[in-house]
């Protein structure tokens, strides 16, 4: 049975808030964080935030002054939709993806806002440096020695299903309002994930409708709620979401802009764990149980435990990929996998 929207979020704990006075204090908080936290007003002085506080149209005009003349990828929901970018009844996407220049896209959002049309129009994960000139220089967070990817998310009132990301994330509300609902990584089994290959944006998403959870179909979601936290962010506020924490994101205003920063503590030349999981589904998941037990032991031995006994009996110069990874050995592994997969 579905429960009311307000009741769901009222039952969740609030994401903790911290106060930071400068970049050094933010750096310390990020280094120490093992769970999400909110910083109110972190980017309140951004010119983009100030434009958005005046009006959605002023925020759109500000973006247009900095945009590059190139096509943007836009997700567009069905007319009269409720902003949820998800699957349809046949498990295809309930939105279409098109290309458009930013002036035309924002003009369409102008018209939808004037008519009160709730149709989803969403520009997701747009690289700030590739698609805008000067926007980053005037509106950015000092993250010290980190080398993050800076992305901007622009759209109407949308709902993005719970998912997780591999990098750490600092998300800053530049216009409109956002509600984030987060869950620890161990709530994987209670979020009822959908396919890992047929996804709206590359990551498996929760099949639970957070606005109206069906507890008959998803009874374990009640347990997830015991561990969930939620927060509504105003323009200038920011939230840090550590790597692999689940997060459900809603744009609550008719027009919303988010700027986020992703970074990894591990080198970029390391592979993505998701790729290993997908390959394991191909090679291991459907083996007989006794063989799966063997490969589980192999993964523990070589990957998860990776103790000294793995290589202590092998001369250092002969350990090859069993030695500590380097950019060169990572490249050899990739080349080996490409040869193997192409057979």
From TrEMBL:
Pfam family, one: Cupin_8
PROSITE patterns the record matches: JMJC
InterPro entries in the record: Cupin_8, JmjC_dom, RmlC-like_jellyroll
Superkingdom of this protein's organism: Bacteria
Residues of the JmjC domain: 98-278
Protein name (Swiss-Prot/TrEMBL): Cupin-like domain-containing protein
Organism, scientific name: Sphingomonas rustica
Lineage, uppermost ranks: Bacteria, Pseudomonadati, Pseudomonadota, Alphaproteobacteria, Sphingomonadales
């Amino acid at each position: 049975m579905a429960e009311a929207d307000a009741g769901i979020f009222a039952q969740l704990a609030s994401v903790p808030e911290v106060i930071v006075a400068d970049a050094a204090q933010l750096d310390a908080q990020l280094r120490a964080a093992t769970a999400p936290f909110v910083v109110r007003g972190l980017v309140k002085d951004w010119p983009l935030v100030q434009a958005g506080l005046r009006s959605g149209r002023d925020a759109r005009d500000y973006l247009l002054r900095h945009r590059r003349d190139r096509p943007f990828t836009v997700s567009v929901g069905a007319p009269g939709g409720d902003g949820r970018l998800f699957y349809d009844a046949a498990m295809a996407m309930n939105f279409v993806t098109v290309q458009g220049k930013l002036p035309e896209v924002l003009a369409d959002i102008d018209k939808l806002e004037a008519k009160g049309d709730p149709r989803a129009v969403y520009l997701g994960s747009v690289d700030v440096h590739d698609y805008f000139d000067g926007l980053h220089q005037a509106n950015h967070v000092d993250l010290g020695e980190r080398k993050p990817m800076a992305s901007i998310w622009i759209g109407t009132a949308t709902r993005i299903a719970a998912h997780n990301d591999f990098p750490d994330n600092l998300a800053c509300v530049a216009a409109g309002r956002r509600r984030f609902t987060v869950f620890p990584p161990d709530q994987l089994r209670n979020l009822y994930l959908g396919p890992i290959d047929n996804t709206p944006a590359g990551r498996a998403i929760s099949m639970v409708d957070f606005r109206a959870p069906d507890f008959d179909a998803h009874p374990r979601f009640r347990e997830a709620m015991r561990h969930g936290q939620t927060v509504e962010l105003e323009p200038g506020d920011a939230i840090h979401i550590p790597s692999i924490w689940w997060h459900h994101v809603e744009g609550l205003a008719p027009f919303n802009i988010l700027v986020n920063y992703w970074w990894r503590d591990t080198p970029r030349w390391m592979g993505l764990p998701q790729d290993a999981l997908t390959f394991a589904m191909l090679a291991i998941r459907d083996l007989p149980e006794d063989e799966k037990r063997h490969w589980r032991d192999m993964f523990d031995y070589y990957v998860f435990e990776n103790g000294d006994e793995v290589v202590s009996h092998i001369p250092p110069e002969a350990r090859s990929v069993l030695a500590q990874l380097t950019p060169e050995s990572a490249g050899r592994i990739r080349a080996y996998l490409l040869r193997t997969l192409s057979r």
